[in-house]
TrEMBL record:
PANTHER family: PYRUVATE KINASE. Its cofactor is K(+). It comes from Populus tomentosa (Chinese white poplar). InterPro entries: Pyr_Knase, Pyrv_Knase_AS, Pyrv_Knase_brl. The lineage of its organism: Eukaryota, Viridiplantae, Streptophyta, Embryophyta, Tracheophyta. This is pyruvate kinase. Residues 23-268 form the Pyruvate kinase barrel domain. Pfam families: PK (PF00224). Belongs to the pyruvate kinase family.
Amino acid sequence: MTASNGGGDALTAAAGVMEMRPKTKIVCTLGPASRSVPMIEKLLRAGMNVARFNFSHGSHEYHQETLDNLKAAMVNTGILCAVMLDTKGPEIRTGFLKDGKPIQLKQGQEITISTDYSLKGDEKMICMSYKKLAVDVKPGMVILCADGTISFTALSCDTKAGLVRCRCENSATLGERKNVNLPGVIVDLPTLTEKDKEDILAWGVPNKIDMIALSFVRKGSDLVEVRKLLGEHSKNILLMSKVENQEGVANFDDILANSDAFMVARGNNTLVKSNKRWSA
């Protein structure tokens, strides 16, 4: 049985429309340079499907203004867009420095890292925000700072004083509050900080967001805890897992089974040493 010309034309047209729809979704971060209504309209027309709100920076008021701009842009263009809240997550950072001035590190020099985060650092001693640093890091382990551009090797650990004596493996300039990565260490930090919980419950839920991108997910049970936090709202909010450390890579299958979506955090994962190859 064959379709009439009219039916055939309709099927051909429908097939053409389907082919034109992009199969890959586009996520765009709405930051200082992209949060105005005219710019968001351009992003929508260019194919933005999901607007990412990065809660590592900015206040609730700041993000609310951006969301209001997004809503206005959607009305103006007639194009819908999902909203993603990206949590800050549990971070380890270096501390503040004396007079706020960067310090010069030289290859081969020794330096002490303290877990007293009130300390103002210098060329002899700096601090890091992870309280269990001296307990979890062992001599011979590597501590990476500033996206891996600065590398320290642990020489000795004083667990009572919360101090780690290190050798600097390269010459570099260290500024304030740089991110820290501990390859091979299972860090004892919650997936959701108190700030994350407040961001989700006080801003995300009232604004009926579509998705939460969870930073530093390490195991499948992390997703279970977030769904408990969301309660009845969990059925309407998708959870995207961001795997950013060695523990998360090791528990990949468990995390994937409990996630609605998955994000590969390239920046932090380049600092994770693993002999395992992942195939797409």
